[in-house]
């Protein structure tokens, strides 16, 4: 079942909330399970993520992965934040059951979506960052704008 770390982050989520006037906001969902995750980033002039918050309407694993993902990107620069993959989040949580792997993907995609928003607002390009999908389940064919 769930590791102690998953349970801990689910019961005591870190960085829950929102940031007013955030440098970047990203929202992604998964139409299949109906879960939605939103990440807010506060990025300073040196491209360091000085604060990050999340709001997740989703399952326990989605809450735990959002919480861990925010912990992993906090204080990092945007390049380092790009390395926070769903695998890294899962490892930091001591693993997730196979049916819950997609929840960690939501966390990775939400961070990428927030970085994308930041890059768009500032007219910069972030290496390796692609236009995010608003629905990770629909995948490629979903080109609608984010909600
Ligand atoms: Fe969909 Fe967890 S069940 S994000």
Strand-helix topology:
Layout (H helix, E strand, L loop, with lengths): L3 H8 L12 E7 L4 E9 L5 E9 L2 H14 L4 H5 L3 H7 L8 H22 L25
Antiparallel strand pairs: 1-2, 2-3
Extended strand count:
3
Strand-residue fraction? 15-25%
Which structural class do the helices and strands define? alpha+beta
Bound molecules: FE2/S2 (inorganic) cluster
Q: How is the main sheet built?
A: 3 strands, antiparallel
Label the overall shape: globular
Separation, N- and C-terminal Cα atoms? 33 Å
Radius of gyration: 14 Å
Mean pLDDT: 93
Number of helices: 5
Q: For the largest beta sheet, what order do the strands appear in spatially?
A: 1-2-3
Give the SSE order as H and E letters.
HEEEHHHH
Poorly predicted sequence stretches spanning 5 or more consecutive residues: 140-147
Considering DSSP H and I runs of 4 or more, what fraction of the residues is helical? Answer: 25-40%
């Amino acid at each position: 079942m769930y590791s102690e770390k998953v349970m801990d982050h689910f019961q005591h989520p870190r960085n829950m909330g929102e940031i007013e006037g955030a440098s970047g906001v990203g929202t992604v969902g998964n139409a299949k399970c109906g879960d939605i995750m939103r990440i807010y980033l506060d990025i300073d002039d040196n491209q360091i993520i000085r604060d990050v918050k999340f709001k997740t309407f989703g399952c326990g694993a989605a809450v735990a992965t959002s919480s861990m993902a925010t912990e992993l990107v906090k204080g990092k620069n945007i390049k380092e934040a790009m390395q926070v993959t769903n695998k890294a989040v899962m490892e930091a949580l001591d693993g997730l059951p196979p049916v819950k792997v997609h929840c960690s993907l939501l966390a990775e995609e939400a961070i990428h979506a927030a970085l994308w928003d930041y890059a768009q607002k500032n007219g910069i390009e972030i290496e390796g960052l692609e236009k995010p999908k608003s629905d990770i389940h629909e995948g490629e064919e979903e080109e609608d704008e984010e909600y």
